[in-house]
Fold:
Amino acid sequence: MSSKLPFKRALAAIGGSAGMALSSLVLALCLMQKGAIEEYGLFAFLLITQALANGFSNAMLGSPLLIALADTKSQRERSGNRTLQSFMLANLLLCLIFAVIQAGIVWGFENNWLLSLTYGISAFFTTLRWFGRAYCNNSHRHAKVVVSDANYTLLSLTLAGYLFLSDNVSLLSFGCLTGVAASLSLFWLGREFLCMQCIQVFGADLRGFANGWNKQGKHALLGVLTTEGTLNSHSYMVTLFFGPAAFAPIAAASLLFRPVMVVLNSLNQVERPRLRRMLANNEVSQAKLSLVRYRAVNIVFWIINCIAAAIVLTLFSDIYWKDASTLSALLWATLFIALVRGSRSVSSTYSVFLQAADRFKALSLVTLKSSLLTIPVVFLILQYFPPEFSLIGILIGEVFAFILLLSLYSGVKS
Structure:
């Protein structure tokens, strides 16, 4: 197997990811232009919690699923595999649980049952589609993921344009938009996935999932939770302590770097199965060579993202952010987030390599240590400085995690 990340595959993953990032950017811009700052802050916080649900899906289902799929080569084997059906059942339960959580968050801030129900339904279908993406990527059906992402992007942009022009931009209308886009984009993931998820799941049990949970899932989940503590603890603290309005400038800065994060997540899903196959064939040197190009793609995209963010804030700051009183907070947050994303662009390559090497327990310890440093630092900063400076604590945790990952990676023998 070639050690290079295939250019067409990388380009397809970036294209689909860029489209999804563009959708998020357009939705946020619409809310920033025509909605209240509190509405945008809450919407941005809901995006953070949805990303956490996607991380749960990756850890509890996606990572163990990759191992299970390695033993099922043909479509016939997959369609009758009780282990895979078990993962499908677990996915439905996860989607239902997170739908309730997302609805509860909306109810806590808005006390509106219709709004809560709308975002609960949106969360269900968004989480369901995310697992479908992981299933297709892990079974090397990347084209279906690209088409599904493209459909999601097209629907989101079209509906957002209609809502903007008809002056119907609101939290409620955008909750309906994301739910419709996610549910309709499910169909492009293919008949095999939909059949397993919607039909063959009946009569399945959780034994296959439980086995994957014990071997990989629980370590990967600990990694997700502690990574969330390292990367997004400021989001939860600022929103809960100061409210959605205080979180809004930080979210707007983070949104500028949404493209690079979505690209990293998609490339991770594409590259991890390749690395897993190389390592299974004892091609450790080839796998490490593959990381060179993989890391270069990440860094190049981060640089492009930084340039684009600088252009937006230099030439179009009054269009992007109309609240002049919090412009300084936006600029400081942008600087800190750019550094955080740069560190993540490099460290994520080592993390994916170690995941492919089945080093989930060691990875979970890395993120645990970094979160134990990050969370108290962020909390202390918020006691004495404005909310945007809490990102300094996030940066410290990211750098610390990178050092630990590099040490682990160096210990993998060629």
Summary: The first helix runs from residue 7 to 34. The two ends are 16 Å apart (CA to CA). The chain has 16 helices and no strands.
